[in-house]
Specification:
extended, 110 residues
Length: 110
């Protein structure tokens, strides 16, 4: 019975990956590997890594587009990749939800 559940899980995950239609851009393979090393990224499964890669590719495309526009004088600042580049905007917001800096001054210890 257990093997049936494992098989079902593999089929579901495989179908999800196949149905997403995402194919990693080989032109950014090295950049993806540097991102994972620089920010010590590891993923629980191949499916999770593929999902993160898709999000990351969309985010770096936006970063690169913005920076090209900066060079054309359309923006006053540049953007850079950071450790959150493999998160959606919604995931990023939820990650920081409720984490506001304290307004109380920190006590000094002698």
């Amino acid at each position: 019975m257990r093997c049936c559940y494992v098989f079902l899980l593999i089929v579901v995950v495989g179908t999800t990956i196949a149905s997403s239609g995402f194919k990693p851009n080989p032109d950014v393979d090295e950049r993806w590997e540097r991102f994972k090393v620089k920010f010590q990224k590891t993923y629980a499964s191949d499916a999770e890594e593929l999902k993160r890669r898709e999000i990351w590719e969309k985010n770096i495309a936006n970063i690169d587009k913005h920076n090209d526009e900066f060079k054309e004088g359309k923006h006053s600042y540049m953007l850079a990749e950071n450790k959150y580049a493999d998160m959606t905007k919604e995931e990023w917001k939820n990650h920081f939800k409720g984490k506001k800096p304290s307004k109380k001054p920190k006590k000094k210890t002698a």
